[in-house]
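Go through this chain for my students:
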Amino acid sequence: MFRRLTSSALALTAMTAPALADVTPEQVWQSWIDYYESVGYSVAEGSRDKAGSTLTVHDVLIAGGADTGRMSMKLPQVVLTDDGNGKVSTVFAEELSVNLEGEEPEGSNYAIPMTVRIPGNRITTSGAPEDMTHEFDYPTIDLTTTTITTEGTQTPLPMNFALTNSTGTFHVVSGTPNKYDYAMNTEALTFNGDVTDDQDGKVKFAGSLDGLKSQGSMSAPGDFTNMEEEMDAALKAGLAMDGKFEAGAVNATFDYSGMDENGQPSTGTGTYQGKGFDAAFSLSQDGMGYRVGSKAMDFSLTSPQIPFPVSYAIESGSMDLKLPVSQREEAQPFSFAYALTGVTMAEDIWKMFDPQASLPRTPASLELDLSGLMKVTRDLFAMPEADETVPADDTDSATAEGVAPDAPADDAQAEAETDAMDDEVAAEPSGFEPVEMRINKFALDLLGAKANATGELKATDGGSLEAPVGQIHAEYEGVNTLVDTLGSIGLIPQDQMMGVRMMLAMFAKPVEGSTDKMATDLEFKEGGAIFANGQQIK
């Protein structure tokens, strides 16, 4: 799905800014064709005509992709005009059609037709053949879907996404490698839809994002006939890309209706409000990075089936992931960081289990920062090799059309072999083997108690982190008070309090000079032995 969406997004982006354009209309059009063909798309035109300094191309069809996801675009008209000052203006027809189709992993086929309206669009291209800058202006980009067809069955899928006042630049430097960079600002994005699921449940949604900004760059080493299927080869040849995106205020509403698991009616409405978020990505042979951050947001849900509104809020959140993607003999660095701060819940939720407000309502937070080394045993973006097809039955009872009805034993054997192959696929390793992990920070603040931990674990020679060596040091504050409170309000049954305290005493020791602080020192030794505060527990 990621590769399919990435491929389609690249094609749509190129449509809004013809790549590798030159200073004459013919060169602009031909370079556009060359770009699409270089990434595995075909370009067909119905006709073209030239009147003075204007080239008009009619009935353009751009199509391509893999079996899992194909995209085709139909443009009724493209008008390219020599402005007489070394620049070329490109204007697309105000309405074009896009069709997405393919095959889901489970084997079902789908098709989604879309209509895209871009009234008032204009792109102005300047520069030299090997160094072109495209300035684009789109007052409106409006994308609408009405149906989705799955396995021949058409289902309504009314959705609309509209971008307002999108402007920016797309810069191309031709050579070895080709280099691209872009920047785009959009005043607002609005969206709405009415989606029906397989059980006739319906979800209506609507919302908006303000102040969208995006920018990125790509260095492409050469032409690839199908970037989606040749990503691994492209990375090894030097493909590198990065980008970032940010948005201001986010507002969304939704309501749903359907049946629950017991066949009873289920309905609800919800709202989401956020002050903004940002995201960034990078990809090259050296690794993949993904980061996302969110400013303050709150969410609420009401339903007749729930006796009170469900709502929570977050002051901020972030996630940062960096992974190697290329197979190498030596271990490579990785990192993962995650944080949530200022998490709060509505009082109605608290009252469910703490009506007397015995527990503190202070905002909760979580911080996790990990880094280390891992071995990559196979290239992450390498396409799986096609398996040879093995006949389900090769006995005399097989026919030209398949297995004969009187061969149940062989059918059962074939089914068993298929199940075994499925189990083998399911057991396929991930390709990542961590050999060293550092806990740079673990911090949890919840219900008035705090926990902090640091440590480092390493795999033994020829081993894995399933049996590591190393140490972890953790400190706790307010845990004893929290246990007492949980017992007093009945969340920990009184007959289990003794066991909970014994467990605490086994893993945590009091900190000298403090009444409610404890610490744990975990030591992992060769052979799988584990010690807690000097006492062997495994």
About this structure: Confidence is low (pLDDT under 50) at residues 1-22, 387-412, 420-427. Helices lie at 2-16, 25-38, 231-237, 347-353, 408-426, 479-488, 494-507. The longest strand covers residues 153-173.
